[in-house]
Specification:
Elements lengths: L1 H11 L8 E7 L1 H4 L9 H11 L4 E7 L5 H11 L6 E5 L2 H6 L3 H17 L3 E5 L9 H18 L2 E3 L29 H20 L5
Parallel strand pairs: 1-2, 1-3, 3-4, 4-5
């Protein structure tokens, strides 16, 4: 009887009780899955893709439609709960729509990365590119802040959320069929391509974690 109990304890303390890697996806409507059924949004599709690659992972949807980098900073502390192992940060699109000073956006992203560093949470920072209509100085400052902050905090960096659809210099005409009617948010098939582009970066993020 005692041997049986010992055997049960060994089984219960083994790999069967291993916890999945928990990743918080901090972002705006692109992360939240605006305009799509829940199962077709970015987070569920990314989680499914990662599991197909063999990753034992849970993605938390911390995307809020309309959120700016300031909104993300205000949510960072309570998003980084003790069970969160890593974080994907995809913010800045709404800063662009509002013409917010890149120095302000940069300070907010800096605060988010600082919070992650203090929580000992690995980060994948996803970049974004400003349109040219704000002027060359605005565009240069905005575009550069992501890679520079990633280097400063030694985080992983992906140049664009839309890398799987062509990334920087994307031709809107070529991806019209992958977007919703507003031309801003991807449809379900667009999300498939986004996940195929970002998925390997998230696998790299997972590989950075201890005992992953």
């Amino acid at each position: 009887m005692r041997k049986a109990i010992v055997g049960i304890l060994v089984v219960l303390s083994g790999p069967a009780l291993a916890e999945p890697v928990v990743i918080a996806a901090l972002g705006d409507s692109l992360t939240q899955g605006y305009g799509l059924p829940q199962e077709e949004g970015f987070v569920p599709q990314l989680e499914s893709w990662l599991r197909e690659q063999g990753a034992d992972v849970q993605i938390l949807n911390a995307g809020v439609s309309g959120d700016t980098t300031a909104g993300g900073l205000s949510r960072a502390a309570w998003t980084l709960t003790p069970d969160v192992d890593a974080m994907i940060v995809t913010l800045g699109g709404n800063d662009l729509l509002r013409g917010i000073d890149p120095a302000v956006s940069r300070a907010n992203l800096d605060g988010i990365l600082q919070a992650a560093a203090e929580a000992d949470v690995e980060v994948l920072l996803v970049g974004m590119q400003a349109p040219g209509n704000y002027g060359p100085e605005y565009k240069a400052a905005f575009d550069a802040m992501y890679s520079e902050l990633a280097e400063q905090y030694d985080t992983l960096y992906a140049p664009s959320f839309f890398e799987g659809m062509g990334g920087v210099g994307i031709d809107p005409a070529q991806v019209r069929g992958l977007m919703q009617a507003d031309g801003i948010h991807p449809n379900a098939e667009g999300v498939v391509q986004i996940v195929q582009g970002l998925g390997p970066e998230v696998l790299n993020l997972i590989s950075e974690l201890p005992e992953s």
